[in-house]
Amino acid sequence: MLDTRKKEISPLQCGFSAGESPLPPDPRTSPDGSPRVLAGPLSATGFKGDSPVLNLYPLYPASSIQYPVSSALGLYVHIPFCRRRCDYCAFATHAVSDASVWERYVDVLIREIEMWRGRFKAATVFFGGGTPTLLPVSLIGRVTAAIRSSFDVDPAAEWTIEGHPATLMGERGRECLGRLTQLGFNRLSLGVESVHNATLAKLSRDYDFDDVCDVVGAAREQGFSNINLDLILGWPWESDKQHRESISKACELAPTHLSVYPLKIEEGTPFFRQNVPVNPDFQADEYMATHEILQGLGWEHYEVANFARTGFRSRHNLIYWHFGDYLGLGVSAASKIGQRSFSNARDIRNYTACLREGRSPCADEEVLDAREIDRRKVIMGLRLKEGVRSNSARSLFQEDILSDFKNLDYLREETGSLRFTPSGWLVSNQLYLHAV
Ligand code: SF4
């Protein structure tokens, strides 16, 4: 029997996950739902170690592996550095302000990019992290040049870069934004997190809401017409009223896209050690309020945690959600090409050593069989408002469990498709538990 009690709707269990950062599109999980890497503190030698790399591809270049790709893929580039680690963050990133470390990373990243020279077309490019805008534009430009010379990038490609508002403030920020558009970036994704100055101060984000307004204004002035803002819902010290204000104030900045994720406290983070509480009921209420407010303002709630103005869905993240092909470049980046799902070394020292020695940094690989591909397609497809073809869903879920969800208006079936309602997304993991 399906248990629908609201107290069991936990954001740690539900279908929430972020869409704008991706190693994959999800700061908390990889595109296929597997947990992301929790980066640790730097050791005296530079980086925290983990298990040795399993080199499945000892030959450089990796061109001996055949990847059947029929269409252009999404390129993800991971920049694993931030000004400081935020207390709630479990992303694969390190607080590094030493420019020589950034340069050495870019050197090996370019080696990895060149390893794939001439193999693929790219429809989208996404620089995520971490904080890509922490790096000088000259270093970012070296990476974009390597991408352009190694991949056949669609001239109309979507180029996204993630930025921390504090790295884009003032004249330096304005100049940086202008140079990024000259490099070809046409979409900016800003990690705003909250519009309330008290919350931003608690998080030591080093900017306030006025700064965010200035950065968004400067970005637009410098040519970014496609701007996403990331917000987090469920800060335990913010009221429901404040959350509603957050959504409204964010809309006043006229972004084209909003990603609204629930606060998630991961083991190993300072917030976990401080027992910062997460209230699932509160988060569920805020989630539904977000849906209602944005829908009322004409936004399209097109994915579990993502909202877009017409024509501004994230093309890069849609590749993940359609279970298309994507290539992740950089430490810990995940890829899916054809039947192969693989990811790079999670330890930056191992990643760097492999590339310096002329070996692939790939650390693990899975060859997916047809059944597994179908399963992942259904689960990823149900994240989107269109859902999936009913017969695909029925190959994974029994009729009685689908009926239970439909009777509770968590799922709707129309014209041969099955899709979650927004309240259904909150309990989507309860459906996935029943996958056969
Ligand atoms: S800036 Fe973003 S990626 Fe970096 S530590 Fe903070 S939340 Fe994590």
Explain what the structure shows.
With 436 residues, the protein is an alpha/beta fold. The chain folds into two domains: 15-367, Alpha-Beta Horseshoe (pyruvate-formate lyase- activating enzyme), CATH 3.80.30; 370-432, Arc Repressor Mutant, subunit A (Orthogonal Bundle), CATH 1.10.10. It contains 15 helices and 17 strands. The strands form four sheets. Strands 9-10-8-7-6-5-4-1-11 form a nine-stranded mixed β-sheet, with helices on both faces. It has a three-stranded antiparallel β-sheet with strand order 12-13-14, with no helix packed on it. A three-stranded antiparallel β-sheet has the order 15-17-16. Helix 6 links the parallel strand 7 (226-233) and strand 8 (257-262). Helix 1 packs across helix 10 (348-356) and helix 6 runs parallel beside helix 8 (280-296). The chain is globular and about 60 Å long. It starts with 72 loop residues before the first strand and ends with a helix. The relative contact order is 0.16. Bound molecules: iron/sulfur cluster. Iron/sulfur cluster binds next to loops. Residues 82, 85-86, 89, 91, 93, 129-131, 164, 191 line the site of iron/sulfur cluster.
Biggest sheet, in brief? 9 strands, mixed
- Count the beta strands: 17
CATH C-level category of the largest domain: Alpha Beta
Indicate the CATH architecture of the largest domain.
Alpha-Beta Horseshoe
In short, what is this structure?
By secondary structure, the chain is α/β, with parallel strands linked by helices. It folds into two domains: 15-367, pyruvate-formate lyase- activating enzyme; 370-432, Orthogonal Bundle (Arc Repressor Mutant, subunit A).
